[in-house]
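Replying to the earlier thread about multi-chain prediction with a worked example.

Input:
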Amino acid sequence: MIIESECCCYASDFPTIDTYYFTMSSSNQNKVWLKRPVHVCDVPGFIYYKEVCFKIFEENTKTWGDAKQECELLGGRLIVLNSEYKHNTTVEALHNFSPNPYTGQYFVGATDIGSEDTWRWVDEQSIGSATYMKFHGNNPNNYDFHYPGEDANCGVLKMRHDGMVDDYCLQEKGFICEYVKGLP
Ligand SMILES: [Ca+2]
Ligand SMILES: [Ca+2]
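Result:
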């Protein structure tokens, strides 16, 4: 199903997200705004993009634990970026759909709660380096600049870096849910 930007469903689901994007013209370097059709998933409010059904929570910020619960209440989970393809696809989608495509930061489904420096995705029993997980720079360093002295046990995807950092879990941030068919 394709819904154009005028559709009431899209507008009510994502009141803060502009349905237009710009691209740079190779000839004159001017910004050209284009109308973009939005492909939606089977579940209300989720956008389909290259095999990923995701929903951005931008203004309704939550702690990591509450964000995880919110995603599960919707029948999904905090997004799991356990492959290079999934990570890059999600970054690309956020550059297209996020209201803050280059400054946004979102909780995702990565944590080392329970065992310091043993990172896992929320969907998996397997832990540690066996799983793809793309951190930025010297992260994970169990340090959050804004919360020195607190553990940093929750993954945040920062659009500025196109990668993940570990931050303090009990602060409130935007987050990304995904819907995967077959999940309970
Ligand atoms: Ca940690
Ligand atoms: Ca950190």
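The longest strand covers residues 52-62.

Feel free to reuse this layout for your own posts.
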